């Protein structure tokens, strides 16, 4: 009996040790302002607590490998210790330099705690005491020593705008400069195209070819060729800069491009994925220069039917560089340079567009805010850029190329399995968001069929058509977009719901998107019967999707900064706006004239009424007056504060309409009773 009990105890002890032994997990470290860290682990509901002494050189945002230090007991959170830093979110920081005898320290300007960085005098590069600088972390060993860095940029104290834009990029994890190793690889790339390379490609230099890009663009990564064939059809080619020819896999240049994964477009600058000489010179399809390209060439009937296509590497020569504005002018006037070719291209693009929407693509309109800047980068004007026929012309032909490449690759099998490929997918709408949206749309008299994905798409298009020009257009468009899933890159192809495509990828912008480079490499291998499976492709898709989101957040933050900067000039002035969002603590208003969004705090409304948030109706309702501030309503606001540090605008509601008069009357009546 005693031996049995002893055996049971030993078995239980083994099991206890097995379950309590450190288990290594991977996640992202989030450090709070108080200095405590938490690591979110995929598949685990509760994150892991990491105390400051257990960070082991990890910083906020780093991807880390942790071990469980203390299992959860008595309701306490599970604790861990960082074993390794797998990937640093950022290695460059903005802050101040503090000089000492023989060395210097860098103190970062960050809300999140991080240690000071030791800067040897050989690494200060002409910086002086108390200078605001950008420092790059170059070494941090696990031996308890301080991190070591070098000054890579001294900021101009007079140019706060430049510092703000750089800080936005760094916060998002995008380095400001390329490493010396990457630049060295780029510098070794020859500028001249070798004759041997031209002989291996389809030569299309004598075919009429143009580029159409924004007026301020320098990285022209796509061109369109056009010619009439003897059989009456048109040959239309979509030619894309052959970045993969210049950026070879696993070089330092390639590794850095992968880490960035995308160019970031801020109002006053571009933070490129590739060094400028590659982006704007070697690969840019500039007019009157021979260029290496990867092409999708189609034979299309005058009625817009695709008869056949060819995919492969080419050498091309652009005859002219157009801006979107120039092409739009030709389309509207039906006259101008190369008008015949442009008008035919536009007619076919419009045909493709109609077919797309007839087959379930969703026609969400988009507006883009552009800033007019002075020499110092300060905004002196705001304009809203809308998508016109010239933009749609390019869009439709790029969509054709992207879809064709994806369809071509989808047919390739390895051991009866699909070849891993970075598809661009867009899943069906989120049902939890769709149901309340459909109920809200019904209040405006719009029916919404949610019985199938096809019915949802059809309902969206009908709704968008019906609301055009009506007061509720803005609110229903915005809320409709919020029901949509986020597009991303993955090897698991589920199609692109928003575009109505079964197969889709990104092939047309390799200068500024790394997934396009991956697509080019895989396509080239397939065309040369060199089919290999990339086992790390899904990991690459996940990384590039995350970097894309980070770039979008940086672009939004920079636009917000410029809006705050602009509206600082109008403190105390009144503007008409549209309610763009509602929460329990207030509502956001976007000015009609500038598209600048600010918050009207519910506290600023207390003198008129007490308002409660009705989530299902996207509105605030007055407790006594019953009056509503609802998404899409037009209101007048006063600009009362503009905080550049927080990138935040504060507005106050201005009484200037029938609603305001009634609420004001109620407030006055309340004062009389008192």
Explain the overall architecture:
With 674 residues, this protein is α+β, with helices and mostly antiparallel strands. The chain has five domains: 24-87, OB fold (Dihydrolipoamide Acetyltransferase, E2P), CATH 2.40.50; 93-183, OB fold (Dihydrolipoamide Acetyltransferase, E2P), CATH 2.40.50; 186-409, no CATH class; 431-484, no CATH class; 571-673, OB fold (Dihydrolipoamide Acetyltransferase, E2P), CATH 2.40.50.140. 32% of the residues lie in helices and 29% in strands. It is built from 16 helices and 33 strands. The strands form nine sheets. The chain has a seven-stranded mixed β-sheet with strand order 11-18-17-14-13-12-19. The longest helix has 31 residues, at 537-567. It is globular. The relative contact order is 0.07.
């Amino acid at each position: 009996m005693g031996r049995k009990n002893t055996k049971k105890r030993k078995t239980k002890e083994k099991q206890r040790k097995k379950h309590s032994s450190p288990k290594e997990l991977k996640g992202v470290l989030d450090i709070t302002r108080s200095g405590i860290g938490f690591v979110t682990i995929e598949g685990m509901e509760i994150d892991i607590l990491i105390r400051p002494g257990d960070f082991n050189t990890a910083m906020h945002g780093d991807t880390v490998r942790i071990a469980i230090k203390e299992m959860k007991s008595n309701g306490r959170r599970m604790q861990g210790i960082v074993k390794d830093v797998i990937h640093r979110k950022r290695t460059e920081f903005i802050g101040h330099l503090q000089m000492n005898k023989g060395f210097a320290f860098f103190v970062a300007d960050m809300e999140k705690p991080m240690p000071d960085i030791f800067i040897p005098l050989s690494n200060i590069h002409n910086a002086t005491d108390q200078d605001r600088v950008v420092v790059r972390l170059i070494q941090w060993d696990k031996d308890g020593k301080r991190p070591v860095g070098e000054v890579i940029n001294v900021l101009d104290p007079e140019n706060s705008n430049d510092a703000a834009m750089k800080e936005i990029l760094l916060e998002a994890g995008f380095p400001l400069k390329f490493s010396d190793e990457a630049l060295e690889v780029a510098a070794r790339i020859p500028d001249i195209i070798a004759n041997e390379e031209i002989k291996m490609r389809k030569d299309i230099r004598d075919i009429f070819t143009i580029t159409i890009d924004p007026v301020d663009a320098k990285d022209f990564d796509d061109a369109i060729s056009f010619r009439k064939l003897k059989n009456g059809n048109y040959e239309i080619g979509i030619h894309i800069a052959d970045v993969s020819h210049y950026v070879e896999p696993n070089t330092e240049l390639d590794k850095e491009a992968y880490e960035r994964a995308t160019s970031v477009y801020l109002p006053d600058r571009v933070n490129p994925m590739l060094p400028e000489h590659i982006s704007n010179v070697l690969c840019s399809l500039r007019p009157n220069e021979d260029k290496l390209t990867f092409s999708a060439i189609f034979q299309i009937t005058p009625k817009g039917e695709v008869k056949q296509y060819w995919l492969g590497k080419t050498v091309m020569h652009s005859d002219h560089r157009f801006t979107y504005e120039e092409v739009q002018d030709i389309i509207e006037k039906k006259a101008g340079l190369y008008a015949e070719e442009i008008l035919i291209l536009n007619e076919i693009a419009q045909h493709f567009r109609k077919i797309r929407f007839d087959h379930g693509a969703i026609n969400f309109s988009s507006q883009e805010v552009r800033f007019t800047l002075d020499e110092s980068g300060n905004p002196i004007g705001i304009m809203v850029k809308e998508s016109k026929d010239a933009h749609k012309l390019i869009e439709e032909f790029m969509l054709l190329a992207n879809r064709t490449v994806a369809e071509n690759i989808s047919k390739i099998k390895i051991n009866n399995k699909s070849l891993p490929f970075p598809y661009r997918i867009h899943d069906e709408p989120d049902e939890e968001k769709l149901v309340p949206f459909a109920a809200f749309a019904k209040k405006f008299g719009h029916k919404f069929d949610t019985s199938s994905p096809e019915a949802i798409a059809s309902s969206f298009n009908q709704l968008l058509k019906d609301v055009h020009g009506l007061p509720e257009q803005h609110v229903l468009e915005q809320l409709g977009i919020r029901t949509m899933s986020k597009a991303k890159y993955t090897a698991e192809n589920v199609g692109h719901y928003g575009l109505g495509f079964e197969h889709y990828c990104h092939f047309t912008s390799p200068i500024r998107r790394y997934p396009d480079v991956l697509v080019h490499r895989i396509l080239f291998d397939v065309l040369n019967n060199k089919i290999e499976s990339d086992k790390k492709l899904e990991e690459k898709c996940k990384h590039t999707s995350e970097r894309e989101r980070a770039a979008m957040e940086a672009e939004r933050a920079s636009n917000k900064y410029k809006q705050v900067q602009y509206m600082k000039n109008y403190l105390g002035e009144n503007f008409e706006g549209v309610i763009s969002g509602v929460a329990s603590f207030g509502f956001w208003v976007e000015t009609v004239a500038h598209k600048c969004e600010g918050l009207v705090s519910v506290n600023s409304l207390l003198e008129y009424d007490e308002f409660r948030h009705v989530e299902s109706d996207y509105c605030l309702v007055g407790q006594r007056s019953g009056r509503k501030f609802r998404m899409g309503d037009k209101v007048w606001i006063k600009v009362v504060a503009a905080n550049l540090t927080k990138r935040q605008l504060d507005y106050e509601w201005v009484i200037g309409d029938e609603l305001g008069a009634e609420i004001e009357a109620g407030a006055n009546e309340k004062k009389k009773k008192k």
